[in-house]
Amino acid sequence: MIAVTLGDPYGIGPEVTVKALAQLDPEVRKGILVIGAKSAFDYQLKRLGLDSSLQGVRFLDTLPGKTVNYSGPYDRAYAQSTLFALEKAVELAKDGRVSGICTAPVSKEKMSEISPGFVGHTEWLKERFGVKAVEMIFVMEDFAVILVTRHVPLREVPILITKERVKEVVQTAEGFRKAMGWPGEIGVCGLNPHAGEGGLLGSEERDTIGPVVNRMKDKGIPVRGPVPADAVFKMGFRVIVAMYHDQVLPVIKTLYPDAVNLTWGLPVVRTSPSHGTAFDIRDKGIASPVSMLKSIEVCIRLSRRR
Length: 306
Description:
alpha/beta, Isopropylmalate Dehydrogenase, 2 domains, 11 helices, elongated
């Protein structure tokens, strides 16, 4: 059994979840529990003409007695129901009742207003499960990308890129590569343009990233770098290690719409689509379910391996 949280009901989470579930085999849907604002889910069912085909989907309502009004202003209750859905999913996972969690998008801004310090699912789940370290991995069909820094201001990135942190991520990348059964190399991006140009455009590659890559290579890990980030996607790496969020996410979101965000290091599988809440297209019926569908499928597949 996996739990699928609807995300912020004011966004496209309910829409892409309904569309994704409709594409799954009915037998597969029996192993899914949806958690979130049921009024938003039911509204999308009717709007998309899927209310008859998705009858019987198991649901846990986190916004009982309230209807999501897409044409009205944002209601704080939407964020509260989103947080409750996540808390319930974690509770079920800790009790062993679900082996995976697939999360539709939330608004970090709205969530932080009711849960101070919230910067994203990854960090929040790390704290709730009480694990020491987790990694954000974006999984495509035949390769993946892992981040050294995640949801931090750009000005803080150079400070956070330490030898220990780069080593930790390279080792995680190698463990993930092996777990997926993928041959091939790990490519480690530089921080600066053209991977620093030998120190001309920055010293992080020479002083921090390069030495770690060489040490890992000496230990038998198939790793290469630092390589220029503007060329890394053309170099055929199985796993790419990127230094910061926007170094690679624009490429992923543009060229790989079915990319899945995987949190590595939790006691349960956790996946999510690679897009956000998209409040600007809420209730228009045009949101693509491709990434959400892939996220559910990957969550189910990896959960079965545990």
